[in-house]
Design goal:
alpha+beta; 3 helices; 7 strands; globular
Length: 162
């Protein structure tokens, strides 16, 4: 069974600005070291709910499912993730299909610290089909999370999506 790893970082931006960068999946190859390609397969409808329609549109216009090509050293894979959005507060994803990757569930949770900074908490559960000691797996998850948070912070604070 895969274990969960969590880490946080404070980013000098609003939750909306950060979530805009997170939601721009197809730009990930520009600023993440291990993602080589992203194809958004489906998006949530952008229009508001009609009268009597159940559910919400907190993911309106954002990716619902996306296919990734990963090249992270010994782990090279193609996988598909399904996304659930909670406005600019949180995004969660789960693995739909993968090769080497058997489980890939995670989330970014955003909490405003003040008017110009936000704490970003990244939670990740990964399991791969190659044998790996638990200690090595947790260390790899920690490196993945810390690298992702630093890359996200740099991308947002550099103002690419303003």
């Amino acid at each position: 069974m895969a274990s969960q790893t969590t880490s946080s970082i404070v980013v000098a931006a609003t939750p909306a600005a950060i979530m805009a960068v997170i939601a721009d999946l197809e730009a990930y190859p520009e600023w993440t070291a291990s993602v080589r390609e992203v194809e958004v397969l489906t998006v949530y409808p952008a229009e508001p709910l009609t009268s009597g329609e159940a559910g919400d549109r907190t993911g309106a216009g954002r990716p619902k499912e996306a296919r990734f090509v990963l090249d992270a050293g010994p782990i090279k894979d193609r996988y598909t993730l399904s996304y659930e959005w909670d406005g600019d507060d949180e995004v969660r994803w789960t693995l739909v299909e993968g090769g080497l990757i058997r489980e890939l569930d995670g989330s970014y949770a955003l909490a405003a610290v003040d008017d110009s900074s936000t704490e970003v908490t990244y939670q990740l559960t990964v399991d791969v089909s190659i044998p790996m000691l638990g200690l090595m797996k947790r260390k790899a998850e920690k490196v993945i999370i810390d690298t992702a948070l630093k890359e996200l912070k740099k991308r947002v604070e550099d103002g690419v999506n303003e």
